[in-house]
Amino acid sequence: MVINTSQMALLLLLCLLGVASASTSNEESFIGVNIGTALSDMPSPTQVVALLKAQNIRHVRLYDADRAMLTALANTGIHVTISVPNDQILGIGQSNATAANWVSRNVIAHVPATNITAIAVGSEVLTTLPNAAPVLVSALKFIYSALVAANLDAQIKVSTPHSSSIILDSFPPSQAFFNRTWNPVMIPLLKFLQSTGSHLMLNAYPYYDYIQANGVIPLDYALFQPLQPNKEAVDANTLLHYTNVFDALVDASYFAMSELNFTNVPVVVTETGWPSKGDSNEPDATTDNANTYNSNLIRHVLNNTGTPKHPGIAVSTFIYELYNEDSRPGPVSEKNWGLFDENGVPTYILHLTSAGTVLANDTANQTFCVAKEGADPKLLQAALDWACGPGRVDCSPMLQGKPCYEPDNVIAHATFAFNSYYQRMAKSLGACDFKGVAAITTTDPSHGSCVVLGSVGRNGTFTNTTSLAPSSNSTTTSGCPVPYSAPVGAGSFTASLIMCVLVVSMMAL
């Protein structure tokens, strides 16, 4: 895998954003990510969680309640929204026992180790599965009753995500109302959300509003770009000024709820984003626009700006989505909403355009090269041999009894070797590839007394990243230090494989 400097820079920003999000109180807004799984080579749950932890992403939404994913998320502290898939709503909405069974299997079996904080019952049911609409509220109530019985109702909220298309006449926002066809569902739903302290879940996509407006909506208005005062959209009824489509959509949902006499149900945006690639007839699905939209969105949300109708009121938001999904049907844009590809390579740098600052600049220069989880051990060993030989990495720290001997497995040793080479090559393009078995991370793989190159040591200074080449008298003709030649038939895994062994844990889980 080859990663350029721009791509690796995204890693630090997401970490910074995760820190900012994690440091907020329960009343402040957060940025989360949706985790879709329509990838031909979907990373394992362990790899997904490693990426989340490396970026300090503290809020995620799953489109199901996959047992392996929930198990991998255990003991991470990450806030998890799980989902009842649409094809299960009819059964759950017609049977309290079925709902209780679902909660038992998918919630009670995982808490408290896994920090489940919300359940999304279906996704855009009114617009994608209207035949389930009559039992939607029953499904929420049955799920909630099961949570009450398990004494989990205070910890876990229950709601259902809606497409913004159920809001009609959405601009000016003060005129917005829900499609009245759905009043028999929306009114009891809002009563339920109000009585349980839950949020209205809204999927808001300014990208689609923009492309469907046929030029009426300026691109800058869709992308949160700064506007001249005379370019702002003004709601003539309230005189509120709108500088972006996102705020207008959120406020339209508030006004639509007010039209039904509900004024105290908060909104959480369960999906929003911008595609980074599109077909020829999707000219605005570009990396630059995706970069701009998500960067400005993150800044807007984490500043707790709120909306013109409710300034300072948190609008927590989940970006759609973590990975590009190459297996999704439809146009090219459908496959390219992700912040990362399947290898965890960032799609683009996030930045704050209005401030002119690229927060992704790695000013500490702290990126590391590690062995990729799940890589073929034989390929790792071959790459390890090359790093300690022709790659001229100093492999002496992994000698038995040295600080970087333990743990003695090929992943740990390869991580140390790969990172040493990467640092010596000044983190140049392609220096962390090793025929696809290595990856860039911002997670320092140092542990205990083993401090890797490029790490900040205990005294706050960087470890030396020069003079890494082993001396000529320390190597055999193969280029590997003599002490790493293991006897045939040695008992441990490493003893049978290792010639150039090094240590460091793979991304700490």
Overview of the molecule:
By secondary structure, the protein is of the alpha/beta class. It has 2 domains: 5-355, TIM Barrel, CATH 3.20.20.80; 368-497, Methane Monooxygenase Hydroxylase, Chain G, domain 1, CATH 1.20.58. The protein is built from 15 helices and 15 strands. The chain has helices at residues 5-22, 45-54, 67-72, 89-93, 96-108, 125-128, 136-149, 183-196, 206-212, 219-222, 245-259, 287-302, 377-388, 410-424, 493-497; strands spanning 31-35, 59-62, 79-84, 116-121, 157-159, 161-163, 167-168, 177-178, 200-203, 233-234, 241-242, 267-272, 317-319, 368-371, 438-441. It has a 9-stranded parallel beta sheet. The chain is globular. The two termini are 22 Å apart. The model is unreliable at 1-26, 352-365 and 457-509 (pLDDT under 50).
Key structural traits:
glycoprotein; cell membrane; disordered C terminus; EC 3.2.1.39; glycosidase; alpha/beta; nine-stranded parallel sheet; Methane Monooxygenase Hydroxylase, Chain G, domain 1; single chain; 2 domains; TIM Barrel; disordered N terminus; signal; 11% strand
